[in-house]
Design a protein that fits this description.
The chain is of the alpha/beta class. Helix content is 43%, strand content 17%. Helix 1 (15-29) runs parallel beside helix 2 (47-58) and helix 5 packs across helix 6. The protein is globular and about 45 Å long.
């Protein structure tokens, strides 16, 4: 907790409501922190995905949701499990800034991370929409988005905490 690393769990999508709770706690306490939650695409078919998206948007929480999309979730090809395979569109339905990102394109990852951090920063200043959502096409791209977002936030004077991997102490 002291290092702002909150671990992971074995429940598909289980980190989503926890990230929303952490962001709500920071908001209620008046802290200038954002929260980053990294999940796999299998989580978008779970109820907690929709509950978390809805609450993050409704309460205007500074959360960045990063989806690492390897196209196979728990072993089933995405087209066989989901009617809508453009995963970023699901987040847009909740009024979030949402972008698909090619996780194998380092320039696209860096650009998307910068836009996401700008969105979180605007949310912290109460000047923008709530949470942001990035859908990457590989796990390495998701991690790169999260790390890049953190490095940008550290220079911007606010901190991000990343669920589930990386301690996020800015400054």
């Amino acid at each position: 907790v002291a290092r702002r690393l909150y671990g992971g769990n074995a429940i598909v999508g289980g980190g989503l409501p926890l990230a929303v709770g952490l962001a709500l706690a920071d908001k209620l306490a008046g802290r200038s922190h954002g929260t980053v939650c990294v999940v796999g695409e299998g989580a978008v078919a779970e109820g907690e995905f929709h509950e978390s998206m809805n609450l993050a948007a409704l309460w205007k929480l500074p959360v960045l949701f990063v989806c690492e999309n390897n196209l196979y979730a728990m072993g089933t090809r995405i087209e066989r499990a989901l009617a809508q395979t453009d995963l970023h569109l699901r987040a847009r339905d909740y009024g979030m800034i949402a972008e698909p990102v090619d996780g194998m394109n380092v320039l696209e990852v860096a650009d998307a991370a910068r836009h996401a951090v700008d969105a979180i920063h605007a949310c912290l200043r109460r000047a923008g929409r709530p949470a942001a959502y990035l859908s990457t096409l590989c796990a390495a791209g998701a991690l790169a988005c999260a790390v890049r977002a953190w490095s940008i936030s550290a220079r911007g004077g606010f901190s991000l905490r990343i669920w589930p991997w990386i301690p996020m102490e800015a400054g």
